[in-house]
Structures are given as structure tokens and as C-alpha cells.
Design a protein that fits this description.
7 strands; 294 residues; Nucleotidyltransferase, domain 5; single chain; elongated; two-stranded antiparallel sheet; alpha/beta; five-stranded mixed β-sheet; 44% helix; 10 helices
Length: 294
């Protein structure tokens, strides 16, 4: 509770809010906002914040209060929301945005708004610290195998498979690629199908099949063949890295589609001693689809 009288600056803010609150119409209100911002040497955004505080708390809302965190920079909610939303939007759908890039966006936004006192780079980093820690925690829980954690897959058959190593559990799934195939004269033939085999522990793409054929037992066998055998490509493919993943899994985890229920595929599985199990596959294919198309 304050016992001393208002300072001159505080009296000016109170009078300014009284004038603004008594504006007869919107056009007058907007003009007064600009005038008061110049008078009080602040941005129009800050005048709006001041008016909200006036409406909520009266005089108490617009006078300076002694703060326990005095000396630290405190951001208003709009800037905090902007920082978090920019970071989240920049790290969605496979995109990556660093906290330094967010700080650059904040500086550019401040120029657009005419804010002469935008959040510093350190303040941006401080706001993002807890958000980055939460994302890291979620990433570790999704990326089993990279951080020594354990994933347990529960199947529709009632099994619980504890994933401990690579080439233990593979997952197979299909997606329609967002590319149209045309013939030599430009006639559209249709969209490709992408079938991927993913190692559950390492998240590596073990094998693929790309073709016009819809998902079937034959397509699954072709994708498995590509995953099982060592990859050997000539220089014509212009690969910059070797594709060194291959082997035979103990389990093939699928969504239980009809293409996985065929006598031919059952025969292949028996010969290779692969156990087919079904459940909710973790869809990584959509991301590869997006990268392939763009």
C-alpha cells in the first residue's frame, strides 16, 4: 500500500486514461491514443495496455508499483505469446527454427510496431527455455533408442514387445505420394505409392518401395526385400552417403491391413522367422512424403 502522493508522471498517466475513457466515439478514441502515446513517450500498444489496466484496477493499475523482481526485464503477455507462437510455428511439420531466429523475428516485429523497447535476445531465450525443455522431453519420448529409454509396443494379439535394439522390431506402412506421374506425352498416369520399413529402435528407414501399385502383399514383400538386403547403388544415383541399414527383424509391426494377411506373406515370414504383429503404427511416412514432394 502506498502512502506518498502520486508523482507528476503518474498524475499524467491518470489524466490521460481519464481523457481516453471519456472519448465520445471510436475515431476520437484512436486519435487520442496516438496523441497520448506521443505525450507519454510510449507506443500505442503500451497505451492500450495502460487502458486495460485502468479499466481493471483504476488508478492502481496505471501507477508504478515497487516490484520484488525489480532490475529484471519483465515482458508483457503480447510479447510472450508472440515469442512462443513464433517458435512453435517455426518448429512444426519438419521445419526447424532456432531461438536466435526467433529473436530476429522479434526485432523485426518491434520495428513494424514502432516499439522502441522490444524484448532483448536474453529475454527471448529466457521465455523459450521452458518451452525448449518441454519439446526436448517430448522428443526423447518419441525417439526411443537415442536416449537409452525403452518403448513397449502393445499388439492387438495381446503381446507386449519391449524394444531394446535395432533390427528387433520393424514397422511397415504406406502413403500416397503428393506427386503426379506423367508419360512421355504428358498424360497423367496417377500418384505413386510409398511403402516404408522403419526400424522402431533407431528410427532409421530400413527399406522402401516406390511404385504405382496399390498396397498389396507383393508390395510389402518388395519393400521387405529392399530392407533385408544390403543396398548397392551405382554412381549414376549420385548418392552422397552409403545406405548401410539392412538385416532381418524379429517382429514386423503393422496396422493389420488386408495386404499383411496373405498366405504368400505368411510363407515369407515363416521362412525368415519373422513374427507379424499388428497395432497402431507410428506414422513417420507422412514426413517423408512431404520431403519427397518438396
Amino acid at each position: 500500500m502506498r502512502s506518498h502522493p502520486l508523482t507528476i508522471a503518474e498524475q499524467q498517466r491518470v489524466k490521460a486514461m481519464q481523457r481516453l475513457a471519456n472519448a465520445p466515439d471510436r475515431s476520437t478514441y484512436l486519435a487520442l491514443q496516438q496523441e497520448i502515446a506521443e505525450q507519454l513517450n510510449m507506443t500505442v500498444r503500451n497505451v492500450r495496455h495502460l487502458m486495460r489496466a485502468w479499466q481493471a484496477e483504476g488508478v492502481t493499475g496505471v501507477i508504478r508499483q515497487e516490484r520484488a523482481d525489480r532490475g529484471e526485464q519483465r515482458l508483457d503477455e503480447d510479447w510472450t505469446d508472440y515469442i512462443l507462437q513464433t517458435y512453435r510455428a517455426g518448429n512444426r511439420g519438419g521445419r526447424r527454427m532456432s531461438r536466435a531466429q526467433v529473436a530476429v523475428r522479434v526485432a523485426a516485429r518491434a520495428l513494424e510496431l514502432g516499439d522502441s523497447n522490444p524484448p532483448s535476445r536474453a529475454s527471448v531465450y529466457r521465455v523459450l527455455q521452458s518451452e525448449m525443455e518441454r519439446q526436448e522431453t517430448r522428443s526423447r519420448s518419441r525417439s526411443i533408442g537415442w536416449s537409452g529409454e525403452t518403448l513397449i509396443l502393445r499388439t492387438r494379439e495381446g503381446l507386449e514387445v519391449k524394444v531394446k535394439e535395432s533390427n528387433q522390431v520393424w514397422q511397415c506402412d504406406h502413403t500416397r505420394v503428393d506427386l503426379l506421374v506423367v508419360d512421355q506425352v504428358g498424360e497423367v498416369l496417377g500418384r505413386l505409392w510409398l511403402t516404408t520399413i522403419v526400424d522402431t529402435h533407431s528410427r532409421c528407414i530400413i527399406g522402401i518401395h516406390l511404385g504405382m501399385e496399390a498396397p498389396s502383399a507383393v508390395v510389402v514383400c518388395l519393400a521387405l526385400r529392399h530392407a533385408i538386403l544390403p543396398k548397392q547403388y551405382s554412381s549414376a544415383y549420385e548418392l552422397t552417403q552409403l545406405w548401410g541399414t539392412y538385416g532381418i527383424p524379429q517382429y514386423l509391426y503393422t496396422d493389420g491391413g488386408k495386404e499383411f494377411n496373405s498366405k504368400h506373406l505368411e510363407q515369407v515370414a515363416n521362412e525368415l522367422k519373422i513374427v507379424f504383429v499388428s497395432g497402431a503404427t507410428q506414422r513417420k511416412v507422412a514426413l517423408w512424403n512431404d520431403r519427397l514432394a518438396h
